[in-house]
TrEMBL record:
It comes from Koribacter versatilis (strain Ellin345). InterPro entries: Alkb, AlkB-like, AlkB-like_sf, Oxoglu/Fe-dep_dioxygenase_dom. GO terms for biological process: oxidative RNA demethylation. Binds 1 Fe(2+) ion per subunit. This is DNA-N1-methyladenine dioxygenase. The keyword Cell division does not apply.
Length: 214
């Protein structure tokens, strides 16, 4: 290992609240496998800005891989087995993605995680995700694994009951946040992306959200 291989900061585990943990740098060593994976998925299922049931075009561009993919349109939020843009099945979850998700869940204390859905979010400058709960999945006993790549962002993590009092968590390239158990339905979101250029992703932040949806 040369000194340039060393992580910028030690891999650290930060308890955000009960059931929610930030694993700093956990994905750093596999980031150069994840980014080509994203490119491959997006070559089959392109990034698109979906529309909420309320008619609002999302600022975050999205695509999916896995047996199930998360979509939204005028009919509502849901999971589908096919990409509505092409009518074809979502691409498979690349092996490196799945391995990382399993290992991160394990490290956070949720063993046996087997995701069937991976939502890929792409944030350009100004893109944001308002506070929300992830609740379109069938089994809230399964955790969520969220991987940050590229430009840094501010992830917000709050309570299960309401949107008030969310704390700001800085997430950087290679960071992984895992939440489950009593935190599974906690409100969370991402503040508007600041302009910047990252050596691995250019002007974007990518996020992989792994879930057991079915
Ligand atoms: O981009 C992130 O860090 C969070 C994404 C998220 O909450 C979601 O896709 O439901
Ligand atoms: Fe979410």
């Amino acid at each position: 290992m040369t000194h340039s291989d060393l992580p910028l900061w030690p891999e650290t585990r930060v308890e955000i609240r009960e059931g929610a943990v930030l694993l700093r740098g956990f994905a750093l060593s596999v980031a150069d496998e994840l980014l080509p994976g994203i490119r491959e998925v997006a070559s089959v299922a392109e990034f698109r800005n979906m529309v909420t049931p309320g008619g609002h075009v999302m600022s975050v561009a999205m695509t999916n891989c896995g047996r199930l993919g998360w979509v939204t349109d005028s009919k509502g939020y849901r999971y589908t087995t096919e990409d509505p843009s092409t009518g074809k099945r979502w691409p498979e979850i690349p092996e490196a993605f799945e391995k990382l998700a399993r290992e991160a869940a394990d490290a956070a204390g949720f063993s046996g995680f087997a995701p069937d859905a991976c939502l890929i979010n792409r944030y350009a400058v100004g893109a944001r995700m308002t506070l929300h709960q992830d609740r379109n999945e069938q089994d809230f006993g399964q955790p969520i694994v969220s991987v940050s790549l590229g430009l840094p962002a501010t992830f917000q993590f709050g309570e299960v009951e309401n949107r008030r009092g969310a704390q700001n968590v800085a997430v950087r390239h290679g960071d992984v946040v895992v939440w489950g158990g009593t935190a599974r339905l906690a409100y969370h979101g991402v503040l508007a992306l600041k302009a910047g250029v990252h050596e691995a992703t250019g002007e974007y932040r990518f996020n992989l959200t792994f879930r057991r949806a079915g």
